[in-house]
Amino acid sequence: MPLTGRDRVLAALRHETPSATPWVPFTGVHVGKLIGVPADALYRDVEALERGLLEAHGLYEPDGMPAMFDLQLEAEALGCELRWSADSPPVVVTHPLARGGAFPAFDAAAARIPMAVDIVARLVACVGHTTAVYALLCGPFTLASHLRGTELFLDLFDDEPYVHDLLAHTTGVALHMADLYAEVGADVVAVVDPLVSQISPAHFEQFLHAPFARLFERLRSRDTPSSFFVCGDATRNLEAMCRTRPDGISIDENVDLAAAKVVTDEHRIALGGNVPLTTVMLFGSQLDNMRCAVDLLAAVDPRGLIVSPGCDMPYDLPVENVIALGQALRRPAAARASLGHAARTDEAITVELPDYAALARPLLEVFTLDSATCAACTYMLRTALGAGERFGSAIDVVEHRFSERENVARCKALGVSTLPSIYLNGELVYASIIPSREALDARIRQALAGA
Fold first, then answer.
1. Per-residue pLDDT of the chain (451 residues; tens, 9 = 90+)
2. Are 230 and 208 in contact (CB under 8 A)?
3. What is the architecture of the domain spanning 5-339?
4. From CA 193, how far away is CA 367, in angstroms rounded?
5. Most buried by CB count within 10 Å: which residue of 125, 145, 267, 362?
6. What are phi and psi of 202, to 5 degrees?
7. How many other CB atoms sit within 10 Å of the CB of residue 237?
8. What is the Cβ-side half-sphere exposure of residue 366, based on CA atoms within 13 angstroms?
C-alpha cells in the first residue's frame, strides 16, 4: 500500500526521513477566500469552514492541514472581547484581568469551542485517512497575555507568584483543549504560542518549561503527536523549547531554518517551517515560490523536516503561488529543471526614509508582520502606543506592517531583519522582545534629553 501524506507527516514527527518531504500549508482564513466567504463569517459557520477546508484540500493536496487557525478561541470563552475582520482572524481587544481580579472559569461549551472541536472531527472524517489533521490550541503564555494584557510583561519582573498562578490556570485550559482534540481523532495537536519569542531564555525556564513539558507529556500519554509553534525570532529559546519534549517545533521566517535544524536534530525533534509568507507567498510569483521550495529542500537534511509557511496564510494569498509551491515540493527535480535560469522577479520599490537626524521629536517605529493578525506584533505595538499615550505630543509613534509591499522595501532600506521590532529615531532598540514599560520609557527619555 503506498504511503499517504498522513504517513509522511507522522514519520517526520518521529524524526524519520519520509519518502517525500511533507507539505503542511497553514491555510487559516484563506480557505474562506476559496469559497467567497469573509473571515468574520467563516470562523462562525462550521458548514462554510468545512466547505473551505475541503476546497483547499483538493487544490493544494496537502500532507497535513490545520482545521482552524484561531488563537482567540480560548480567550473568547474566558471573557475576552474580539474585533472581527473580513480578511483576517479576530483579535483580542479587551483583557479581563488587566486590573486584576479572579481568574475566569473555562467552559468547554462556551463561545466557539464546540465549533472548533466539531470541525476537527469533520475534517478527520472527510480526509483523515490520507491527510494529517492538525488541531491548534492557544499556548499558555499567549493565553495569559490575552487575559492580562501588556501588564503580563511587567508581572514577569514584579509579581512572579501571580505569573505562576495565571500560567497554571491557562495551562489547565490548554490541557482541556488538548484532551478534546485528541478525543475526536486529531493526528497532531499544535500548541501555538507566538509570544514565547518575546521573552528571555531565563524567563522561559522560570515560567514556561513546566507548563509546556506538562502539555506535551499529556499528549504523549494519549499517543497524539505534538507540535510547538512559535512566531518571531525564537532562536534564543529553541534549546529551551526542545527540552519541553514536543514531537515537533514550527518556526517562521525570522529563524534560520538550517541553524535551527541543527538544534532540533540533536534532540530528535522534527522541525517545521518556514516559507516566507509575505515576500514569497504573498508578493512573489509562481517561480519565486518554486525556487523557494527547491532552495529550502537543498538547504537542510530531510530527516524530520516538514515544510510549511511561517504562519497562517493571509486571506488574499494568490492561489497559484500555493499550488506552485506544493508542486515544487512534490517534484523538486522537475521544478529545478523548469526554473533553469529564470530571472528573479524582485520588484524595485523605492521608499524615502525620514531624516532621523533632523526630526522635530523622537520617532518610535514599530515594524510588524501585521498587528491585526500576529499576536506578538499586537502586544509590541500596544506597548509602543502606551508610550505614545504617556508622552503625548512629545513623541511620534507609527506602525509599519510588513504585509504592505511598500513596507517590505522600507524594511530593506533600514536593514530591519527581525519582526516585530521597535526602532527609535532609526536605531534598533528592541528586536522580537516586548520591553517593559520602564525600559521603553527610559529609552524615550534619553532620546528627548538628546533632542
1. 678 999 999 999 999 999 899 999 999 999 999 999 999 999 999 999 999 999 999 999 999 999 999 999 999 999 999 999 999 999 999 999 999 999 999 999 999 999 999 999 999 999 999 999 999 999 999 999 999 999 999 999 999 999 999 999 999 999 999 999 999 999 999 999 999 999 999 999 999 999 999 999 999 999 999 999 999 899 999 999 999 999 999 999 999 999 999 999 999 999 999 999 988 999 999 999 999 999 999 999 999 999 999 899 999 999 999 999 999 999 998 888 878 755 555 555 778 899 999 999 999 999 887 887 788 888 888 899 999 999 999 999 999 988 788 888 888 888 888 888 899 999 999 988 888 889 899 999 999 988 6
2. no
3. Alpha-Beta Barrel (3.20)
4. 20
5. 145
6. -65, -45
7. 21
8. 25
Domain boundaries, the chain: 5-339, 356-450
Report pTM: 0.88
Alpha helices in 102-244 (DSSP H): 113-127, 140-148, 151-158, 160-183, 201-203, 209-221, 238-242
- Written as one string, the DSSP assignment of 298-313 is HHS--TTEEEEESSSP
